[in-house]
Amino acid sequence: MPPSSPPPPPQRKRPGILIPIAIALLLLAVIGGGVFALLSHTTPSKPTSSGLTPAQVNATATATIIAGNQNPYPNPGGGTLTMYDPLTTYYPAYGWDHVPGPNGTNCTFNGGTYHVIEAQTNSDPNDYLACNPEGPGGQGYDFKNFALEVQMRILKGDAGGVFFRLSRVSNGTFYYFRIGVEGTYQLQAWANGANKPKILSKGNLQNFDPSHNNTIAVVANGNSIDLYVNLQSVGNKVVDTTSSSGTIGLASSATSQPADVAFNNVRVWVFQ
């Protein structure tokens, strides 16, 4: 269901031109809008056949969703389920970018999957397309301490991944967990729109098949960052202070070939 006023088209984003995200939402507002977006809407004044009001049914269903989606990652573990989106279709509660951009870029829902597409290549190895959720009313998100998980398939292109802690204060300051189609990974730190990132961690993944659904995850708690692929820890714990909070997003890279990276089932747990 399209929003009443579509968000601006996605842009091929480079360090220095990323748009900062506005104020954070209260967790209860996020859960109330986000998880409820997955439930069918009914008129709250009429009881259901079970004798419960629709509000009670929704509350029960939400509790069931939360109970069935516990954070599987340690350090520190736990947390409040704040985002739960299968990414099969557009939910206004999350407001993921979903309109075409310039030069063949596109963030779109197609076939029950969210695609981050770059139709044209770019020789800059640090170039990528990033698509992010704008939240209810386009207010954005501001996650500080959290675990982020999503399933990713690299259908075409050089790389895909997630960015996080995109600062709403310092333009072009964020982290990027980049996974190459050949099975390499990097944790990049971008600061204040620099021309290239600082590589905080890198290495090779074992038995990585980019065409299959791979579950990639980040746990950011204070200055510590842990990376996971298919529920397995990747590399050593990283300690860094480049960015302390910000929004999240999904990315593709088309350095040598056009890119189409598919995503499903994004979950975010927020820590106190």
How many strands in all? Answer: 15
Specify Rg, calculated over alpha carbons. 18 Å
- Give the rounded overall mean pLDDT: 83
Largest sheet, if any? Answer: 8 strands, antiparallel
What is the helix content?
Answer: under 10%
The helix-and-strand class reads mainly beta
Order of helices and strands: EHHEEEEEEEEEEEEEE
Beta content comes to: 35-45%
Rounded to the nearest angstrom, the distance between the terminal CA atoms is 33 Å
Principal-axes shape call:
globular
DSSP helical segment count:
2
The poorly predicted ranges are 1-12, 14-50
Give an overview of the whole structure:
There is one protein chain. With 272 residues, this protein is mostly beta strands. The chain is 8% helix and 39% strand. The chain is built from 2 helices and 15 strands. The strands form 2 sheets. Strands 2, 3, 4, 6, 11, 12, 13 and 15 form an 8-stranded antiparallel β-sheet that branches. A 7-stranded antiparallel β-sheet has the order 1-5-14-7-8-9-10, with no helix packed on it. A hairpin with a 2-residue loop joins strand 11 (214-221) and strand 12. It is globular, with a radius of gyration of 18 Å. Residues 1-12 and 14-50 have low confidence and may be disordered.
Name the descriptors.
single chain, 272 residues, mainly beta, eight-stranded antiparallel beta sheet, seven-stranded antiparallel beta sheet, 2 helices, 15 strands, globular
